[in-house]
TrEMBL record:
Stated name of the protein: Nuclear transport factor 2 family protein
SUPFAM superfamilies referenced in this protein's UniProt entry, alphabetically: NTF2-like (SSF54427)
Entry-linked Gene3D superfamilies: 3.10.450.50
A Pfam family of this chain: DUF4440
Keywords: Signal
Secretion signal, residue range per the UniProt entry: 1-18
InterPro entries: DUF4440, NTF2-like_dom_sf
Domain of life of the organism encoding this protein: Bacteria
Domain DUF4440: 29-138
């Protein structure tokens, strides 16, 4: 009887852990995106890029095609958005964060740049996040 009771308690505890992990994952990923948004809106592209995996295996897919690597992605951002006016004010909306495993998640959403002088830009994105060395980072970004 004691073994059955312990098994039931263990099963309930493990079940509770399984339901809290996605909530923690979602909250952590939302924080990464909030930190990125704040950095962008300060005109700080380098800090914005801290949400990305600092690896040559990072992939960014945009209207100009594929870019591999953290540094080339940063360089592209700097070329496309050379100053705060070009960067505008970034907002994300309609976020759908879906944990894929304990170490991976995808995020689908909409981005909007309010740029009074240069004209607004808007589009959608699909991000793949991975938990690497205890940190959730973007390993693939398809923005259109």
């Amino acid at each position: 009887m004691k073994k059955l009771f312990v098994a039931i308690l263990l099963s309930a505890a493990l079940g509770g852990c399984a339901t809290t992990a996605p909530i923690n994952t979602r909250a952590t990923i939302e924080q990464v995106l909030a930190t990125q948004t704040a950095a962008w809106n300060r005109g700080d592209v380098a800090s914005f890029m801290q949400g990305y995996w600092q690896s040559d295996s990072l992939v960014f897919i945009g209207k100009r095609g594929l870019t591999y690597g953290w540094q080339p992605t940063l360089d592209n951002y700097r070329r496309s958005y050379p100053d705060a006016a070009a960067m505008g004010h970034l907002t994300f909306s309609g976020l759908h964060i879906t944990p894929i495993s304990a170490q991976a998640a995808q995020v689908v959403g909409r981005w909007h740049l309010a740029r009074p002088a240069a004209g607004d830009l808007t589009g959608h994105f699909l991000l793949v996040f991975r938990r690497i060395n205890g940190q959730w980072v973007i390993v693939a970004d398809h923005s259109s």
